[in-house]
Amino acid sequence: MTATGSMKIVCDRTALVDALTMASSVVMARTTIPVLLCVKLSARDGSLHLQATDQDIRLSLTLASVEVQSDGEALIPADKLAQIVRSCDDTTLTIEMDKTVASVRADDAKFRVYGYDPREFPAEREKSEIPTEFEVSAGALRRMISRTVFATAADNTRYAFNGVLLERKGRKLRMVATDGRRLAMVRGDCAGAAEGDASCIIPTKALNVLNRLLDDPETSVRISRDRTRIHFVIGESAILVSSLIEGNFPPFDDVLPKEHDRRGTFDTAELAAAVKRAALLTNEESKGVKLSFNSGGLTISARAAEMGDAEIHLPALTWEGAEIEIGFNPSYVTDVLRIADTTEIAIELKAGNRPGVVKIGSDFTYVIMPVSLPG
């Protein structure tokens, strides 16, 4: 049995800062349960293991850059411990427990932090061994998350809008996110996939935490699921377990625009800059910008009562079809251009009152609902 309150370690400060920053992103911002504001430290087998949970997400990290002088456990407020470790300049720190009091020592300072009994930390749920459903590289998964998670709803009573749909058909993956006014969809591949098809809705918070764990693009991520949870095993250093969102993701295949008679390509950076500039003359009453496309290029204009107006001209790299005018929320346009990793993007349109489509390469589609503009 691991000793409680007798832990003593000497650890690399930089590695500990990174781990505590990650753990702090999981713990609850506000709660009446103090232990949910804490990180659990377990020193054993020559490594330091950190755990944090908000009861929906559970993160486990392993640090090998640690000298374990005495095995044991500690339960310490995550934010306070992270602030202390960041404030020190030493390359190594010593952490020692006396019952529930943690001592953090640097060359020129010593801190005592009151913690809790590690046995109060929520236990992991009983689980049978879940076989890996598929594997994907960290770089590929991070790219798919980045291209979808920004389009989820911040807070919506339709819970499916607060997460991202992950679909697997054989070795083909698809991730989809929507807030009801726009939709982002990206395709990818996986390896070692189990037979059959599967899908689930992953909460936005879990994906944001996961995205930060995928810093080495070559690392393999093993993914498995049971009925209510999804497990991500990132290399040998991290495990993220998240509850899944119950319910059905809104049907979207039938509403994806399939026929467009107007299509243009534009320089990504130039378009992003032009939309941002035009958006300077929008306000709460006039949130939209007007995009006027023709063979000569694109004109982006905005007008706000008692503020003024703006008009930005941008050449098109290519344009096919008749001229057209359409209004978009500029934030929805800049959001997708911010995650674009190509120098060119394509815009496809059908009519001024129909959704517009932005495409990046052959694997990403972004649909934006138009907005009405003041006359």
Please explain how this structure is put together.
With about 375 residues, the protein is α+β, with helices and mostly antiparallel strands. The protein has 3 domains: about 110 residues, Roll (DNA Polymerase III, Chain A, domain 2), CATH 3.10.150; about 120 residues, Roll (DNA Polymerase III, Chain A, domain 2), CATH 3.10.150.10; about 110 residues, DNA Polymerase III, subunit A, domain 2 (DNA Polymerase III, Chain A, domain 2, Roll), CATH 3.10.150. It is about 15% helix and about 40% strand. The chain contains 6 helices and 26 strands. The strands form 4 sheets. A 9-stranded antiparallel β-sheet has the order 14-11-12-13-26-25-24-18-22. It has an 8-stranded antiparallel β-sheet with strand order 6-2-3-4-17-16-15-10. It has a 5-stranded antiparallel β-sheet with strand order 5-1-7-8-9. Strand 16 and strand 17 form a beta hairpin. It is elongated, with a radius of gyration of 25 Å.
Strand order of the largest sheet: 14-11-12-13-26-25-24-18-22
What summary fits the major beta sheet? 9 strands, antiparallel
Oligomeric state of this protein: single chain
Report the structural category: alpha+beta
CATH superfamily grouping of the largest domain: DNA Polymerase III, subunit A, domain 2
Number of strands: 26
The overall number of domains is 3
The appropriate CATH architecture of the largest domain is Roll
Our count of helices gives 6
